[in-house]
């Protein structure tokens, strides 16, 4: 028996084949998956790179978090399948996208944010900026004292005034 | 077919108060009878994921979901309570009989409440992740009610909503008004209280500074006005001899006054120098003491660099502002007032012009404060990140070298350093722009005064001496004004530092000791764990309804996969964290009712991660009992099989270990930690993977020392290598936070369950690497 040595070149991952894998809606708001004819009525989708590559490498598990497979590229699936996958992902990764910052007030180590998500005004409080403000590849993730996450999906897209208010707290 | 449920009349605790009376009234208006509500919670999203106010509740008949809007108003000063108005758009209900198994699911930033409705999983609600604890409680309470027909007392697991009574926003523990609603002057007032103990010293510094300022203000009257108007201009037609005499008196007086001024300054600086070390020492002690009483969780959520920055830099910033800044501010302000009054007496018209500059400077100060505060904070963030990176780099040097990543690390450092440099540059440029602009206004003012004053002298409305002394006074204003323009900057640095210091001082330790905490009379070491629940984050349970019992003096072995919750159990017994549900009792006393020193003093923890403090080996061994004699230290080291290797070191027991000290192998460090525990002499011993990283021979040696240590003590041993737990009186196999198998070693082997499978796998692995572990001696190995 010949044993192939493990090198980065010989390492491979098996991905879900769109030909044998079909997603369907279950009970109106859940996602199911039929894999090689076997039905899994509730599956959970988890992105491997949720911030920088949200459309590729999506792990599919059952409710017990047992892995059923990995989607390499969502785009490999049909348009209808893609919309089901994206709908589930958008629910799981839903994060209010801040469009403008009205005010940031700082007192006693607490940072009070008044922001707008579209036209909807929201307020939240952040403690420990180093841990709770994460700036990566042009987007910013803010986590408030209750664990709620807020996103600025494109730092360049928010208005200049808002950006100037936020800049002292980014690094 | 489902049997219809019939519940007894409810008499237990409710949480109806979660719904404000105004909301209950609105719900009644919308057709819901709120009188029998058993449990309520509020949400912030629709089932489709749109932000919307939502209320969820259930009574004995059904579960109700209402959507609408709540508008929270700010508190009116007199009533001091927040007011909210509610409108209900829709209410839907589901019969209680149709629903079961409510559960919460945690997503990235949201959560979902699901239920089993007539055998199908349905989504009942969605909510922001911050609402998860409330929804989790709701689900647990609903399920409990369905199972028992009772509402159990709510558990206070620290997730309770704390809201500010003024704005309704989130509020830190121990405060009823959030920091946002506290007065602007609160930081300053707290800082003044911080310096309450130094009032005499500050008053002394202030006294000398005031004297010095008074002298400074008086000098131009004598040195300029009298010199010009009474001597040089010779208005009384005195002889040359008389004029020389007057000049000598004047020069002598000026010299004397200047000398006095210098002496006063020297005394003031001497007092400041004696106060300074004491004050910085006290501030650092206060911050460090506050940090020591905080729980483990606080440290795991902060970067080391940021915490170190707090103790060292922030203490200095606060000191400088209060001991140097405030007295100088008072003196300079007094100088400005004194000089302006004198200037008014000299020429009120010119002085009116001077006073125009004051509001301008006040405006610049106000905006400067706001502007600089953000920039200082930005600088702090970069500096902390740089410190953390350096500490990360130092700790990870072995890995860096092993992967030959020195250049990349250098690149990471230069990038962060460059970011810090740019932030510093930005601040320096801003300071260089704003501060001279205030000075320029003073220069313009001087020019105007000179021009107008010259006209008054020509017109005979003012003497030349008065004009010259007036200009000297104007110059005297320059320094205080310059200082005042810096005050905003200085104060913003101090306030920024103070806020960080107060954050540490105000942080409430999660683990607190009850006022009536008890001590053990005579500790036997019996451990009882009842229906223990624990989660580091809401809805991510790590321990679920776990029950265990260890008799006094017995050994319990805990096995399980990585992440099964084994170490968490050890942490909970030592009360490094508090259980979210259920309890842990030692000799029948809940660990939460015990004095922390009593509890932890009686629990010895030997873990895989050994921390040796900077100091000698002897100091580390006697860490738990610093007064232990040297022969006890040696005896403990011998019992831990550490004595031999210690004696081979050049400085033996005086060898310095810890950061920068003698390098010791994992086994050597472990043996020191065992010796440390032997000296501690705990009644309960927790061995958390104590020998996981050892080679077989070292492990055998350590096992021998551990066997000595275990004798006469209650022992909880957590281990991957199952053969090390053969002496255990009882073994518990933990999987996903619950016990899947329990029994004596042989019982579990004979049961041929999960433990047996793991045992066989390990045996195979040991055989494969040629280690004839003693596991092969068991009769079961013959089956393989």
Strand content of chain A: 35-45%
Please mark out the parts of chain A with pLDDT under 50 across 5 or more consecutive residues, or reply none.
Answer: none
**What is the count of β-strands of chain A?**
12
Whole-number mean pLDDT of chain B = 78
Instruction: Spell the H/E element sequence of chain A.
Output: EEEEEEHEEEHEEEH
- In the sheet with the most strands of chain A, the strands line up as 1-2-3
Radius of gyration of chain B: 37 Å
Number of domains of chain B: 3
Query: Alpha-carbon distance between the termini of chain B?
Result: 49 Å
DSSP strand content of chain B: 15-25%
Task: Give the chain pair forming the largest contact, with residue counts.
Answer: A-B, 41 and 48 residues
Biggest sheet layout of chain A: 3 strands, antiparallel
Characterise this structure:
The complex is a heterodimer of chains A (about 170) and B (about 775). Chain A is built from three helices and twelve strands; from the N terminus they run ββββββαβββαβββα. Chain A has about 170 residues and is mostly beta strands. Chain A has two domains: about 20-90, no CATH class; about 100-170, no CATH class. In chain A, strands 1-2-3 form a three-stranded antiparallel sheet, covered by helices on one side. In chain A, strands 4-5-6 form a three-stranded antiparallel sheet. Chain A has a three-stranded antiparallel sheet with strand order 7-8-9. The longest helix of chain A is centred in the middle third of the chain and has 14 residues, at about 80-90. Chain B has three domains: about 15-150, PH-domain like, CATH 2.30.29; about 190-505, ABC transporter type 1, transmembrane domain (ABC transporter transmembrane region fold, Up-down Bundle); about 525-745, Rossmann fold, CATH 3.40.50.300. Chain B has 20 helices and 19 strands. Chain B has helices spanning about 20-30, 130-150, 185-195, 200-230, 240-290, 295-300, 305-345, 350-395, 395-400, 405-460, 465-505, 565-575, 595-600, 615-620, 630-640, 645-650, 665-680, 695-710, 745-750, 755-770, and strands at about 40-45, 50-60, 60-75, 85-95, 100-105, 110-115, 120-130, 525-535, 540-550, 555-560, 580-585, 590, 605, 615, 655, 685-690, 715-720, 730-735, 740-745. In chain B, the strands form five sheets. In chain B, strands 13-16-17-10-18-19 form a six-stranded mixed sheet, sandwiched between helices. Chain B has a four-stranded antiparallel sheet with strand order 1-2-3-4. In chain B, strands 9-8-11-12 form a four-stranded antiparallel sheet, covered by helices on one side. Chain B is extended and about 125 Å long. The interface of A and B includes residues 110 and 146 of A.
């Amino acid at each position: 028996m010949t044993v192939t040595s493990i090198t980065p070149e010989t390492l491979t991952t098996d991905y879900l084949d769109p030909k044998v894998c079909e997603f369907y809606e279950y009970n109106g708001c859940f996602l199911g998956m039929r894999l090689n004819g076997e039905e899994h009525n509730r599956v959970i989708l988890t992105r491997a790179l949720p911030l920088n590559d949200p459309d590729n490498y999506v792990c599919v598990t059952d409710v017990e978090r047992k892995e059923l497979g990995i989607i390499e590229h969502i785009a490999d699936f049909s348009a209808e399948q893609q919309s089901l996958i994206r709908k589930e992902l958008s629910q799981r990764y839903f994060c209010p996208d801040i469009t403008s910052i009205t005010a940031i007030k700082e007192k006693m180590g607490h940072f009070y944010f008044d922001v707008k998500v579209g036209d909807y005004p929201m307020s939240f409080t952040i403690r420990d900026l180093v841990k709770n403000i994460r700036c990566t590849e042009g987007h910013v993730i803010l986590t408030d004292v209750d664990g709620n996450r807020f996103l600025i999906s494109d730092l360049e897209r928010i208005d200049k005034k808002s950006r100037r208010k936020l800049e002292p707290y980014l690094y | 077919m489902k049997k219809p449920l019939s519940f007894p009349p409810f008499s237990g605790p409710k949480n109806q108060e979660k719904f404000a009376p105004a909301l209950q009234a609105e719900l009644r208006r919308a057709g819901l009878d709120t009188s029998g509500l058993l449990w309520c919670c509020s949400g912030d999203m629709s089932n489709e994921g749109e932000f919307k106010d939502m209320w969820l509740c259930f009574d004995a008949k059904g579960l109700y979901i209402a959507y609408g809007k709540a508008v929270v108003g700010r508190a009116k000063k007199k009533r001091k309570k927040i007011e909210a108005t509610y409108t209900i758009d829709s209410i839907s209900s589901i019969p209680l009989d149709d629903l079961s198994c409510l559960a919460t699911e945690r997503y990235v930033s949201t959560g979902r409440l699901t239920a089993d409705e007539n055998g199908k999983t349905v989504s009942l609600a969605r909510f922001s992740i911050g609402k998860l604890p409330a929804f989790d409680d709701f689900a647990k309470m609903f399920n409990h009610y369905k199972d028992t027909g009772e509402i159990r007392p709510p558990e206070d697991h620290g997730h309770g909503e704390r809201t500010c009574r003024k704005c309704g926003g989130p509020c830190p523990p121990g405060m009823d008004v959030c920091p946002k609603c506290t007065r602007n002057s609160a930081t300053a007032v707290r800082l003044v209280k911080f310096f309450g103990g130094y009032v005499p010293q500050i008053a002394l510094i202030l006294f000398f500074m005031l004297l010095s300022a008074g002298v400074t203000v008086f000098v131009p009257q004598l040195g300029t006005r009298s010199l010009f108007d009474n001597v040089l201009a010779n208005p009384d037609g005195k002889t040359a001899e008389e004029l020389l005499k007057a000049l000598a008196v004047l020069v002598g007086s000026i010299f004397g006054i200047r000398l006095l001024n210098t002496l006063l300054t020297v005394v003031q600086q001497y007092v400041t120098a004696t106060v300074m070390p004491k004050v910085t020492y006290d501030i650092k002690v206060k911050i460090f003491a506050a940090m020591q009483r905080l729980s483990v969780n606080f440290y795991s959520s902060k970067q080391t660099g940021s915490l170190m920055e707090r103790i060292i830099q922030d203490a200095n910033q606060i000191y400088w502002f209060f001991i140097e800044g405030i007295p100088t501010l008072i003196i300079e302000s007094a100088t400005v007032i004194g000089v302006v009054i004198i200037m008014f007496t000299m020429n009120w018209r010119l002085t009116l012009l001077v006073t125009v500059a004051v509001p301008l400077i006040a405006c610049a100060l106000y905006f400067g404060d706001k502007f600089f505060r953000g920039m200082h904070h930005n600088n702090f963030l970069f500096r902390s990140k740089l410190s953390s990176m350096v500490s990360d780099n130092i700790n990870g040097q072995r890995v860096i070298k092993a992967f030959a990543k020195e250049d990349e690390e250098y690149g990471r450092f230069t990038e962060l350093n460059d970011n810090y440099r740019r932030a510093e540059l930005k601040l320096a440029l801003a300071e260089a722009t704003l501060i001279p602009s205030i000075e320029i206004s003073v220069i313009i003012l001087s020019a105007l005064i000179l021009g107008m004053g010259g006209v008054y002298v020509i017109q005979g409305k003012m003497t030349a001496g008065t004009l010259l002394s007036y200009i000297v006074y104007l110059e005297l204003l320059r320094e205080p004004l310059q200082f005042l323009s810096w005050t905003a900057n200085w104060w913003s640095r101090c306030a920024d530092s103070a806020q960080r210091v107060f954050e540490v001082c105000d942080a409430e330790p999660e683990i607190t000791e009850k006022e009536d905490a008890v001590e053990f009379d005579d500790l036997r070491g019996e451990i009882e764990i009842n229906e223990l629940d624990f989660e580091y984050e809401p809805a991510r349970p790590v321990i679920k309804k776990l029950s265990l019992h260890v008799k006094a003096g017995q050994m319990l072995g805990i096995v399980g996969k990585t992440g099964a919750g084994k170490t968490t159990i050890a942490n909970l017994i030592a009360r490094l964290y508090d259980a979210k549900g259920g309890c842990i009792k030692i000799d029948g006393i809940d660990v939460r009712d015990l004095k922390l020193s009593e509890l932890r003093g009686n629990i010895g923890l030997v873990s895989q991660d050994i921390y040796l403090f900077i100091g000698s080996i002897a100091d580390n061994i006697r860490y738990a009992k610093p007064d232990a004699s040297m022969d006890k230290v040696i005896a403990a080291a011998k019992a831990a099989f550490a004595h031999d290797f210690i004696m081979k070191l050049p400085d033996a027991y005086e060898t310095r270990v810890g950061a920068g000290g003698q390098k010791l192998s994992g086994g050597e460090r472990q043996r020191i930690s065992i010796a440390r525990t032997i000296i501690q002499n705990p009644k309960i011993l927790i061995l958390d993977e104590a020998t996981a990283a050892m080679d077989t021979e070292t492990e055998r040696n350590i096992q021998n020392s551990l066997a000595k240590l275990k004798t006469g003590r209650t022992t909880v041993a957590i281990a991957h290598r199952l053969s090390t737990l053969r002496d255990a009186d009882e073994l518990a196999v933990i999987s996903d936070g619950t016990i899947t198998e329990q029994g004596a070693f042989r019982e579990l082997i004979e049961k041929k369950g999960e433990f047996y499978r793991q045992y066989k796998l390990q045996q195979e692995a040991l055989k494969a690497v040629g280690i004839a572990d003693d596991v092969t001696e068991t009769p079961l190995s013959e089956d393989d």
